[in-house]
Design a protein that fits this description.
Length: 165
């Protein structure tokens, strides 16, 4: 991961339970265009990355969470006047693997924090269930605004991995 990725994710690392930096084994990221087809691309990127990391068995849960986070970023975080082909893709997916943890993080240009729907009526609706699913399928999740020259926020979800035998 380049310097830019390290800068984006430093607050994420600070917000997580302590992780020995030496235990970071792998990371990967991809830029996603401001189109809903980006969700399919994010799932394919996640499948390829998890296969390379020999975490195929976690694909279903992780891909569901990635899909929700990317969909939320596209639906709620992009201004309506975002050009279809912006020079810099506005949404970025980061996957990071430590020995016993996997984190997926989605960066978008909005500073507004994600909010879950409150009422049972809303829960029955197709939209609004995303954060409930993220919470249900990951071990923990959160978000933080970006600092410095980077604009927006990162929403992340953590998955615990069994310690290797």
């Amino acid at each position: 991961m380049g310097t830019n990725g390290s800068t984006v994710l430093e607050p994420l690392r600070q917000g997580l339970p302590p992780i020995d930096p030496a235990a970071v084994s792998s990371s990967a990221s991809c830029a996603l265009p401001a189109r809903y087809e980006a969700v399919r691309g994010a799932r394919q990127f996640t499948r390829t990355t998890l296969c390379q990391w020999e975490l195929d068995d976690r694909f279903d849960d992780v891909a569901l969470v990635v899909s929700e986070l990317v969909t939320n970023a596209l639906r709620h975080a992009l201004p309506s006047d975002t050009p279809r082909e912006a020079q810099e893709p506005p949404v970025r997916l980061h996957l990071m693997r430590w020995t016993t943890r996997l984190v997926c993080a989605v960066r978008d240009p909005s500073y507004a924090g994600p909010t879950a729907r409150e009422s049972d009526e809303d829960f029955a609706a197709e939209s609004g269930r995303g954060l409930f699913l993220v919470e249900s399928f990951s071990d923990t999740w959160g978000w933080h605004p970006l600092a410095g020259s980077l604009h927006g926020k990162v929403v992340w979800a953590l998955f615990r991995l069994p310690a290797e035998q």
